[in-house]
Amino acid sequence: MEFSKASLAMRSSEIRRLMALAADPSIISFSGGMPNNSLFPIDEVDALWSKLPRKVKEAAFQYGPTSGYPALLESLRAYLESRGIPMKDKGLIITTGAQQGINLISKIFLDEGDTVLTESPSFIGGLAAFRSYMAQIISAPIDDEGMIISELKGLLDKEAKMPKLAYLCPYFQNPSGIIYSQERKRQVLDLLSGTGIVMIEDDPYGELWFDEADKPLTSTMIGMSGHNVPICYVGTFAKILGPGMRLGYVVGPKEIVDRLELAKQSMDACTSTYTQVIADAYLRENALSPYLDKMRPTYKRRATIMLDALAANMPDGVTWTKPRGGFYVWVTLPNGLDSTQVFQKALDGGAAFVIGSAFAPDGIKNDSFRLAFSHTPEDRIEEGVKIVAEAVRQFVK
Description:
Blueprint: H1 5-8, H2 14-22, E1 28-29, H3 42-51, H4 54-60, H5 70-82, E2 90-95, H6 98-109, E3 115-120, H7 124-132, E4 136-143, E5 146-147, H8 149-158, E6 165-168, H9 182-192, E7 198-202, E8 231-236, E9 248-253, H10 254-265, H11 273-284, H12 288-313, E10 319-320, E11 328-332, H13 339-349, E12 351-352, E13 354-355, E14 368-372, H14 378-393
Parallel strand pairs: 1-12, 3-4, 3-6, 6-7, 7-8
Antiparallel strand pairs: 2-9, 4-5, 8-9, 10-11, 11-14, 13-14
Helix pairs in contact: 4-11, 5-11, 6-7, 6-10, 12-14, 13-14
């Protein structure tokens, strides 16, 4: 038995372990980047389904076009245009989760040994997709405004061959929680312009800003004019409807989206028509806006509880990001301490998080860790942070 080179290059995914920890009721888990089950719009979806005509319900149980359920493609285009994403002359395809979108883009662009440019730290799922096609990953560190431009320029200047892809999560980034400034987005686009690099703009959290003042920062890079960068915008219904729906989408140049459709045909033929029908009804009945109006203060409150608990309990020398939206806080330990040691102590005490090396493009840097406040019950966040802080104290003298 001989496995493929691609499969042998795969690393064990931290996602499997963090999902197991998130499901363990004995552990206060800050590991899973997902909504709490109690927050899903179940009653709203029940009502939407009950109102649908029988013919539509029958269609929901049938195969559908690879590109997506036509009614959803129509309603989603309108929704994206309302967010300032220009859809004229753009292709749109529905995917089985945003992860499939990232994987499909990787599939049509990457050959063994090609290079992908990412942020550091970066999303576990994106890194796993690029590695599965045996790509080399180079990365530029981020600060509070996004990818550091001098570092990005240095990487591009020294590369003999330009990367095929650049992968960014500019809106309440996973894992750091930061949001790119408008100026930083423009600077990134200016540097990539004319290089031939295709950008993946990953946006799972852009609708989950905490304060209205930050909403302008969620305007997309694909919607910005004056650059020569082909952009594939990857979105999802996971955080604004439910991850179990497994609904994502990609907006991009038509020639790219046409090739994504060909690649998807050999992968799963079509995304679930059933969940697409629900998502279409969700958009057409304007159920998304009131749901977001309810979720934004909920997540802001959870973030505030976590940030207050960190400020009250963490020892000197430990720093963390202060997110203005999304699901995450990124904690950095002093003096290059190893977050794996802290993780084990915290787990012994009854709390869990995700270690930093899971998000490191090189798989090495491990002096940070991610805390997700989205899934943990509000009345257990402070208790869990105290456990984590006590674990940190065992190593910070």
